[in-house]
Every structure is written in structure tokens, then in C-alpha cells.
Amino acid sequence: MEFKIEKVAELARLSLKTEEKKKLEKDLGAVLDHVKKLDKLDTSKVEPTSHVLDMENVFRADEVKASNAAEKALEHAPHADGRFFKVPKIVQR
Questions:
Q1: Considering only CA atoms, which of 58, 72, 36 is closest in space to residue 85?
Q2: What is the pLDDT of residue 89?
Q3: How many CA atoms lie within 13 A of 20 on its CB side?
Q4: 17: phi > 0 → left, psi -120 to 50 → alpha, else beta; which?
Q5: Given this model, what pLDDT does residue 90 score?
Q6: Which residues of the chain have pLDDT under 70?
Q7: Is 70 within 8 Å of 83 (Cβ atoms)?
Q8: How many angstroms separate the CA atoms of 10 and 28, rounded?
Q9: What does pTM read for this prediction?
């Protein structure tokens, strides 16, 4: 696969020095050559997967439990009004 390293650098918004361009062109070329080899493989009998391991989601039953999270959060508030944080007014009319 042919590519212009200057165009790739431009798209990636990279400013490259001459020696960096040469190295990057060589490295990217090697990667693309490897992908080209993989493209030749016959994968018609391989089932598509989303993960390399056979995994399943494990679900638990929803249970309603009592919670005092709001009260705990308000314990640390400098000012509270009932179940709400009280903050200085910042909007002027």
C-alpha cells in the first residue's frame, strides 16, 4: 500500500523532522505490509467474535435497599437546607 508520509503527518497534525519522517515511513510501511499479509488469510470459516475469551455477563437480581447516601453527603456540606446543599446565589436579576 502506498502512502505519503507528509499527508499522514498533516492529517495527524504532526510536525516531523526529516529523520522522523524517514523512520515513521519505514515503521508505518512495515505495519501496512503486515496487515496486507493478514488480508490474504481465509477467514470465511472463522466465527466473528467480540472478545478473545468466551465470556458472559453475570447479572444479579435488583434489590431495593435502604440508603443514607444523601445524608452522608450533606454531613460534609458547609451549609445545607433540609435535604439540599445550600450555596451562595450567583445569578443576578
A1: 72
A2: 86
A3: 7
A4: beta
A5: 87
A6: 1
A7: yes
A8: 15
A9: 0.46
What confidence score (pLDDT) does residue 50 get? 80
* Amino acid at the residue 62: D
Residue from 11, 1, 5, 4 nearest 24 by CA: 5
> In the chain, what is the straight-line distance between the N-terminal and C-terminal CA atoms, in Å?
63
* Backbone torsion region of residue 31, taken as left when φ is above 0, otherwise alpha when ψ lies between -120 and 50, otherwise beta: alpha
SS3 string, the chain, reads: CCCCHHHHHHHCCCCCCHHHHHHHHHHHHHHHHHHHHHHCCCCCCCCCCCCCCCCCCCCCCCCCCCCCHHHHHHHCCCCEECCEECCCCCCCC
What lies within 8 Å, CB to CB, of 28 at 6+ separation is 3, 5, 8
C-alpha cell, 91: 445569578
CA-wise closest residue to 84 among 93, 92, 73: 73
- Domain borders along the chain are 5-39
